[in-house]
Every structure is written in C-alpha cells, then in structure tokens.
Specification:
About 50% of the residues lie in helices and about 0% in strands. The protein contains two helices and no strands. The protein is globular and about 35 Å long.
Length: about 70
C-alpha cells in the first residue's frame, strides 16, 4: 500500500483514538480499535493513553523468562 495512504489511515486512527479518550474515558473500545489499526498498519504496538495500565500481556521471549520472577539472560 502507498506510504501516503498508510500515513493518512494512521493519522485518522490516532486522531479518533485520542479524541475518544475525552468522550469515553481511558482505554475505551474506540481507542483500543484505533490502537489495533495502527498496529496492523505500522507494526508498532502503541498506547494512545499512556498514563493508564494496559491489560495486554507483554510477550515472553523465553519459556523460562518470567517464571517465579526470574529472567534468563
């Protein structure tokens, strides 16, 4: 897809997502949908309301990482 089209889609999604914060509060369904659109189009997982905790789990790179608070290096 053209970089211009992707840029327009991402800009619209970011604008709608940020404005929905003021209407529906933090982490509402519209904002989450806009974050997913941005992730699909750019590959970047962002949070449009960074002051709130996300309910998403961080990916684990190793089967042992995170077990009992340990980390494999």
């Amino acid at each position: 897809m053209s970089i211009i089209i992707v840029s327009v889609i991402v800009a619209i999604a970011a604008t709608v997502g940020c404005l929905s914060y003021y209407i529906g509060g933090a982490d509402n369904k519209i904002e989450e949908a806009c974050e997913e659109i941005i992730k699909v189009e750019t590959g970047e997982d962002i949070d449009l309301s960074p002051g709130t905790p996300e309910l998403k789990q961080a990916p684990v790179s190793s089967p042992l990482e995170g077990v009992n608070g340990t980390s494999v290096k």
